[in-house]
Specification:
The structure is a homodimer.
Chain A lengths: L11 H20 L6 H12 L5 H8 L3 H13 L3 E2 L13 E2 L1 H22 L5 H27 L1
Antiparallel strand pairs in A: 1-2
The structure holds a DNA duplex.
DNA sequence: GAGCGTATGTCAGGCTGCTGACATGCAGCC
DNA sequence: GGCTGCATGTCAGCAGCCTGACATACGCTC
C-alpha cells in the first residue's frame, strides 16, 4: 500500500516527532538540576567519546549550526568544563578537550540521561526490540537525509 | 544489561534525534516550494483530520506552545487558508476550520510530505516493520512523557 | 607559483519560539 | 450566590538558533 496522503494517526513521521519532543522535554528536566541544556550536554557527550573534535564536527554531531555550537563552546569554556588551544595546530580547526571538571560533570549528566533513556526503553519488550529500533532509526535517518540531498542539489 | 552511561554510537535517543532532524530537514525542503513551514503544515494537517480544533489543542498536537501556534494561526488566517469565528460559541476556545483554499494547499502539501515519508520508510524491509516502528515510537513517547510528568511534579 | 574549491572560525543581524503575565470563561464545591 | 481551580486567548520581553557574510588555511589542478 502506498498512501499518497499523510494521516496523523498512522504517520511514522508524526510518531517520530512525538517521541523526539517527549525525550527532549524529559532530558531538559533531568539536566536542569545540573545547570546544563540539551545542546550543552550533547557537546560534552560527543567530546567524551571523541576527544579532540573541532567545533564544526561537534556542530554536525549535535545537529546544530557551527554558529550555535560556537556559543555553546564559549559558555562551557568559561565554566571551565572544556579547553581549546589558542592556536590551531593544523588548518583552522581547534581540537577541543574536556577538563577534569568537564569529565566529572559529563559523568553525572550522562547517568541522568541514561536513566531517562532506560525509562523510555522500558516500553519495549526485549533487548532485541531495542536493537531493532536503533537500527531502523539509523536506517530511516540515512534514507531521508540522502533524499534531502538529492532534493537540495537538484 | 543496564548501562549507567550514555554511549553515542549505541544510544537510541541519539538515533531518535538524528532521524527527527533528518526528517525535519527533508520536510523543510519539500514544503518550501509551497511557501509553508513545518509548523504551518502541521497545523493544516491537524485541522484536516480534526476540523474545529482550538488553538490550544493545535498547539499540543504540533508540539509547540499556544503562543507559537497563535502566530502560526494568524499568518495562515491572513493568507486565507483557515477561518475562525470572531467570538467563541462556548468558553474561550475558537474552533478553527480550513477554507476551500486551505484544503487545496493541504492536499498538495500532504502529498509532498507523504513522498518524503515513503522515502524514509523505504529503508525498512516490510510493512510489518513499519507498523512495529510506529507502535514502538508511540510507546516510547508515552513512557518518557509520563516519566517527565513524575519528575516535574515531584 | 597562481587559482580555484572546500572547510573552518567568527562576527553581525534577524526571526522563531519560549517564559512570564494577565484577562476571560467554565465547572466544581462550599 | 461566591470562591477556587483550570483552560483558553493574547500581549510583552527575552533567549536560542539560524542565515548571511567575511577572513583564514589547506588540498588540488594547471
Amino acid at each position: 500500500m502506498q498512501p499518497d496522503r499523510v494521516h496523523v494517526e498512522s504517520s511514522v513521521g508524526y510518531a517520530l516527532k512525538q517521541a523526539a519532543a517527549a525525550l527532549r522535554g524529559a532530558m531538559d528536566t533531568a539536566l536542569r538540576p545540573l545547570g546544563l541544556t540539551v545542546p550543552q550536554y550533547a557537546c560534552l557527550e560527543l567530546l567524551g567519546s571523541s576527544p579532540g573534535l573541532s567545533a564544526a564536527e561537534l556542530a554536525r554531531g549535535a545537529f546544530v549550526t557551527r554558529q550555535s555550537m560556537h556559543a555553546v563552546l564559549t559558555g562551557l569554556e568559561q565554566r571551565g568544563l572544556l579547553a581549546r588551544p589558542p592556536a590551531a595546530p593544523r588548518g583552522r580547526a581547534l581540537p577541543t578537550q574536556l577538563t577534569e571538571r568537564g569529565v566529572a560533570v559529563l559523568d553525572e549528566a550522562s547517568r541522568a540521561v541514561a536513566r531517562v533513556e532506560q525509562r523510555m526503553l522500558g516500553a519495549l519488550a526485549s533487548t532485541d526490540d531495542v536493537a531493532r529500533l536503533h537500527r531502523d532509526l539509523v536506517a530511516c535517518a540515512e534514507a531521508v537525509a540522502s533524499a534531502d540531498d538529492v532534493a537540495t542539489r537538484g
